[in-house]
Amino acid sequence: MNIFGMIFLAGIFLVPPILVFSVKPTAPMWLKSGRLLLPIFLLALFLAHTSDILRCFHYKSNECWKFHAYFIKTALLQYIMYIGWFEYIWRKYHKQDSLAVSDNIKYGIVSSLILAISLIMTLTMLYFIFNNFIGSLFF
């Protein structure tokens, strides 16, 4: 891996916490949504470029396109889970946590959606880890 790839990998893991915690609760809604959507959008562009999905369109291969699209969707879901962890910490720190849907929506639809996806993905990953690794040790 070259130096640019290593810098990009470091940026993938450092940019979301910096963006999430740099915005105050009194900021406009577009800024609060943008801090969550910008890293996801940049990763989607990078993955589309590095997975070479355009070659699938050139060769008109449907199986190739499905494989690359599945790879990109899986990576983005894991990244949304990662961003959701920081959004949850940000909400707890600024005392904006609520389980009621009507209260949650006022904090932003994008934020609530990312938290919901993050919760589902985290529970799925914990189930997968327990079922395949830890569960096989005891059962």
Question: Any key phrases for this structure?
Answer:
mainly alpha; 139 residues; 6 helices; globular; 83% helix
Q: Give a short account of the largest sheet.
A: none
Helices and strands, in N-to-C order?
A: HHHHHH
Q: Globular, elongated, flat, extended or rod-shaped: what is the shape?
A: globular
Average the pLDDT over all residues and give the rounded result: 81
Q: Estimate the strand proportion.
A: under 5%
Radius of gyration, Cα only, in angstroms? Answer: 18 Å
Low-confidence segments, given as residue ranges, are none
Q: How many helices does DSSP assign?
A: 6
Distance between the termini: 40 Å
DSSP summary, beta strand count = 0
Structural class by secondary-structure content: mainly alpha
Helix content: over 70%
Domain count: the total is 1
Short description:
By secondary structure, the chain is mainly α. It is about 85% helix and about 0% strand. The relative contact order is 0.10.
Task: Describe this structure as you would to a colleague.
The structure is a single chain. The chain has 6 helices and no strands. With 139 residues, it is mainly α. It has one domain. The chain is globular.
